[in-house]
Amino acid sequence: MTIDFKDHGKKPYIVNIEDATVQNDNYRTTIWTGGQLQTTLMSIKPNDDIGLEVHHGIDQFIRIEEGQGLCQMGPTEDNLNFKQSVSDDEAVFVPADMWHNIKNTGTKPLKLYTIYAGPDHVEGTVHPTHEDAENDPNEQ
């Protein structure tokens, strides 16, 4: 499948996210930017990283599709007290205002996608059916 590596935001878009992530050879490619959500693909070379950063008021989801790395997070850029290895098929959840970085510790590119967002649902929401969601007063 051929992927059109451009930002398709603010209009409907469907893509095989795994294929797009694996095929992306750019460090960062934004594929969708909306008013409340953005998705980017990343390809991190061996011994490189995503760069130590913090997103004020924005939670982040990172999915590793290929490769291995070291994820570090903490309350300040000088106190990255959370460290864990990450690899294929693992997800990293970065709370808003949390400093974080992922370094490629492998010998091939680290392929990942990331979603930046503010929450849309009440924390802990579970809707077994579509009808339950439509009848939830918190979803109005």
From TrEMBL:
The keyword Isomerase applies. CDD domains: cupin_Bh2720-like (cd02223). Residues 41-116 form the Cupin type-2 domain. Keywords: Isomerase. InterPro entries: Cupin_2, Flavonoid_dioxygenase-like, RmlC-like_jellyroll, RmlC_Cupin_sf. Pfam families: Cupin_2. This is Mannose-6-phosphate isomerase, cupin superfamily. One of its GO terms (molecular function) is isomerase activity.
